[in-house]
Amino acid sequence: MAIPIAVLDCDLLLYGRGHRTLDRFKLEDVTDEYLVSTYGFPRRFIYYLVELLGASLSRPTQRSRAISPETQILAALGFYTSGSFQTRMGDAIGISQASMSRCVANVTEALVERASQFIHFPEDEATVQSLKDDFYGLAGMPGVLGVVDCTHVAIKAPNAEDLSYVNRKGLHSLNCLMVCDARGVLLSAETHWPGSLPDCVVLQRAALTSHFETELHKDGWLLGDSSFFLRTWLMTPLHIPETPAEYRYNMAHSATHNVIERTFRTIRSRFRCLDGSKGTLQYSPEKSSHIILACCVLHNISLEHGLDVWSSPATGHMEQPEEEYEQMESMDSEACRIRQELLLTHFS
């Protein structure tokens, strides 16, 4: 079967003449509409990524040095937003399918290296107060520092013997623990947990728990659903509300916590490699975890640039395993006291 000369030339560049750069595709030669429809983002956003990641993507030690940072970023965005290595996409930017795969690996690594720069809790007092004010404006729930939940992303089976990634639906997945603010900006993202772990176990083992239990957060808390246990820093809904105050508390809790569900839908809508519509991520758990985290970083950067897709139509995605909650009263008496005080002070 004949191989297109363009692809052969690109691979020769990749392997044999590493000091040259590939410049077949020029951003200025196409419209914003084309870039958004093919790569998911407008020109100014792509230029920002080139500036942000350019140094990392030009490292002499990387095999794809001959491919420009701009082309590597386009290849990665094309995969993240479409979920497949389409031949026509590689042809458009002048690289082979194998080269596209290496570009995705390079860009993913560069984004993961910068995760802490874009995904973190605010530290200064004014920003923390603004965070609480934004949440309070949603449904009148005070003191909220973030909403937390887990979501599953389907991956290929690591091997026949490893059942740790098999979730309750019998599918292989990663269980990703995330926290976001009232706008859907991610404040924490742990994307590496095996799909067999229940949400409450993921939280128990997570760095997030260590952070909130070692740091003093006396004036605020996260909101979590009934898959988590009540803690001094994590307010959960009441299992069986009885009084008007308890009903009001649960309604405010649900309306506020819904932000994280919308955020999950937003991420899956923008990054179709995560929604299962093109199949599972065909990588090891570690590489899949990095791809998910890279998409989380891009999600935050896109919100920072005013690219909000909450109004986008919902897309198909992997059915989330249903947790079988053990509805138990928390053994943490201090946490129970804090929730009761919250009820009396703000919902009675």
UniProtKB/TrEMBL annotation:
Gene Ontology terms, MF aspect: hydrolase activity; metal ion binding; nuclease activity
Domain of life according to the entry: Eukaryota
Protein known as: Putative nuclease HARBI1
Cofactor: a divalent metal cation
PANTHER family the UniProt entry points to: NUCLEASE HARBI1-RELATED, PTHR22930
Keywords: Cytoplasm, Hydrolase, Metal-binding, Nuclease, Nucleus
Ranges for domain DDE Tnp4: 148-300
Subcellular localization: Cytoplasm; Nucleus
Pfam families: DDE_Tnp_4 (PF13359)
Alphabetized InterPro entries for the sequence: HARBI1-like (IPR045249), HARBI1_animal (IPR026103), HARBI1_dom (IPR027806)
GO CC aspect terms: cytoplasm; nucleus
Entry's family note: Belongs to the HARBI1 family.
Function in brief: Transposase-derived protein that may have nuclease activity. Does not have transposase activity.
